[in-house]
Each structure stands twice: as structure tokens, then as C-alpha cells.
Amino acid sequence: MAKLTETEYLKQQKGKLHIAKFLAAINYHDDDLQTTIKIMRKKLLEIQQRESSAVINKPQTVRKIIFKFGGSKTVLHKHDNIEEDSRNASRSETLMCKRQNKSEEGVMDFIKSVGGSEAEFVIEKRLTVSDVTPNQGRLLIPVLQLKNKKGFLTADEETMMENKEDVSVWVFDPDRRKSTLNLAKWRMSKECYVLKTNWNHVVKTNGFKEEMVIRVLSFRVDHQLCFLLDRVA
Hints:
The chain is of the alpha+beta class. The chain has two domains: about 10-80, no CATH class; about 115-230, DNA-binding pseudobarrel domain (At1g16640 B3 domain, Beta Barrel). About 40% of the residues lie in helices and about 30% in strands. The chain is built from six helices and nine strands, in the order ααββαβαβαβββαββ. The protein has helices spanning about 5-25, 35-55, 80-115, 130, 155-160, 200-205, and strands spanning about 60-70, 70-80, 115-125, 140, 165-170, 180-185, 190-195, 215-220, 225-230. The strands form two sheets. Strands 3-8-9-5-6-7-4 form a seven-stranded mixed sheet. A hairpin with a 2-residue loop joins strand 1 (about 60-70) and strand 2 (about 70-80). The longest helix is centred in the middle third of the chain and has 33 residues, at about 80-115. The radius of gyration is 34 Å and the shape is elongated.
């Protein structure tokens, strides 16, 4: 047997030390090689089972890591769910932002096309049964849910509301058809603005149903108060 050089000897001793630490970590105390192989296979299978149970019913990207012992091999599957889910979430968020930006650009283009300005986001609302029931004939816009807390009315319009007078407004539906409605303020259990008079026509024309989500924006054409309705879901 050839004599080991000092460098080879130190490398061999270092390797044995790593092996000893690994065997100690898995609580191995037998010098038999076959027993070592069995124990290591068992430990690897336990790891595989734990990972498999943790990712049940989740889409997975799977890599195979192959460990070879004594001429045979054990396959351990490594799951990259967290990284893959993060990438998918990032892609979905990017697409959602692109769709939202495109939608907002379309809205602003339309408002400009009719000579509008001072656009404000009023509310995003899930329609209730009373919003689409013909005998109610109105859309409730709770004041506390307004996105623009400063409101969208002029001082004169606010005065009219306080005196229980209606304000005539233009309403553009999701297909950009214009209707003339009245805006009022009601004091119920909570203070609400109310779009009424011809609201039933808007509901019927657009097929609005309970649980649909709409977004309402306000803007001005000269001094005329207008509202734009968009379907969200």
C-alpha cells in the first residue's frame, strides 16, 4: 500500500471527522457499513415523508436529489413550493397592476373625451339587494365609505343637500351611456348619498345584480357634476 503524503493524510482525517459528525447527528453507533446504509436510507425517507405531508394539495416544482450508498441509490424529492409560489404571486400581481393601469387609463381617456376634469374616486361597492330592487329605485352611497373624505360636492351643492333639494347629475354606465339622475342626501341609520330617479333604468340596462361590485367615480364637465360607473366583479 502506497504511503500517504502529509496532505493526503490530513485530508483523509478531515473526511473521517466529517463522517463521524454526521453519524453522531443521526445517532448512529454501529460500525457495520450495511447498517449505516439502512439507517441513512431510513432518515432520508423520514425527511421525504415530512416534506410530502407539508405540501399536500399544493402545486409543486420537484427536484430529485440522489444519494448513493454502497452501490444503490436513494431518491429524495425536494419541493420548491415557497419559491415557486412567490414567483407566481409576483407574476399575478404584475398582471393585475397592468390590467388596473390599463383600466384607469381608459377611464381617464373617456373623461377627457367628454371634456371632463376633477376626477375623483368615490366608492367601490358590492351591490345589495336594495340597490337593485325596483321598488327601492336608488343606489346608496354611505358617506362614511367615501374614498375621498373631502367629498365631491361644491359648497352650493352641499347647501342644496342640507335643504333637502336634489342635484341633477349625469351618470355614465359601464358602456358609457349617459343618463340624467338626481342626487340626494338621506339621513337614515347612517348618512348616505343617494342616486335616484332613473336608477332602475340603469340597473335594467346594465343587468346589475346583487353581489356585483361596481366602482363609482365623480368628475365635472364645466360645472356639471357627473358620475362614471364601472363593473369590477
